[in-house]
């Protein structure tokens, strides 16, 4: 597991190097979303509004919402619609109700066409109003009974008045008591009628009213087909990005020279630079899978940091000469050295070739003779020891794990080769070769420098200076 923090630069590098693959996966996600939208047919939702006049508490509004979607109302709606194959149980999944501001109940119905959705909402609203009026006592029979009771009370009051007038107008005790009892009866009846009027819901709350037919929906209810396509594309894109970052986080390849040397159990002799090439690291072959991999950009690693800029060939050769110098110090003269290079590491292969090329510039016997041998990291096999004094491992940075390098070390021990060191090669961006002056350490003869007192400038003398020098000499 890599301990490196995933930064925005890493994400940006992944997007630049894997944009083709991400684009293809995003397209695949959009196609998957389209396929899912086919499974789920389009839905249209229409809404009807029912007004509840009068004063209503919040809990009473919630009760009306529950009544609107109750099984009784939905079953009556299904019977009124008469749709084949649609019963109350299935219809209950397609209706909904909610309480809005202003004592309004919003009743919604969903269907596969706008016409069916509109009709479902209208029929459900009417069935709700009819059922709510029946259970609240607001029917015509109840109104008739209440009106008849009021007429009887009025007649009773009139009769009480007549009895009060017909009583003995004298001041006898019996007449006074009779009139007093009649007035008490009148007062009791009036209070009873007041309470009846207050308890009658028809006086405080009028009947529920449907506020017109539901509007026919003009668009589909989310999620639409476009939503499914967009969700599939975004989902696949995010999964691809997270997958790349997870793989990079779980990468156990060693990148630094000390880590590689510690895994091999040897010393780090140095790091060398290899100029970047366009096709380095790409999968060989010409099959359709290889071409597809190259087209998508998956034939090269994306988590490798961009190569740093370096000097020209002369500057890079200094690092190789330093490695050769360290080998001369460790090995006896006229000795041989086995150079082990993984067969799937083109950067290390080029570095080993450059190391051998630098050896040809040195006098015979000045440094150990190098013999390059390619090995398979998965199951490495090192040739038996002959005239070599040891083995040198050349590896590319960030390509191998500690287990891979441990296998190389075991193969060297099995073949009786002592590991004299490891050289780590890294890719760099080159600079154009120098043309004006010779590079340091080049085999070409440098231009002569001016010598004091001779008048030499390293080039053709000017005529004036030549004339002055001749005159001075004559004097």
TrEMBL record:
Membrane topology label: Multi-pass membrane protein
PANTHER family hit by this protein: CAPSULAR EXOPOLYSACCHARIDE FAMILY (PTHR32309:SF31), TYROSINE-PROTEIN KINASE (PTHR32309)
One cellular component term from this protein's GO annotations in UniProt: plasma membrane
Broad class of where this protein is predominantly found: membrane
InterPro entries xrefs: Bact_polysacc_biosynth/exp, LPS_length_determ_N
Organism: Streptomyces finlayi
Protein's cellular compartments: Cell membrane
Region (Disordered): 431-475
Protein name as annotated: Membrane-bound polysaccharide biosynthesis protein
Superkingdom: Bacteria
Keywords of this entry: Cell membrane, Coiled coil, Membrane, Transmembrane, Transmembrane helix
Regions that span the bilayer: 21-40, 226-247
The keyword Ion transport appears for this protein: no
Pfam families cross-referenced by the UniProt entry: Wzz
Keyword Ubl conjugation: no
Domain Polysaccharide chain length determinant N-terminal: 5-58
Coiled-coil spans in chain: 146-199
Family according to the record: Belongs to the CpsC/CapA family.
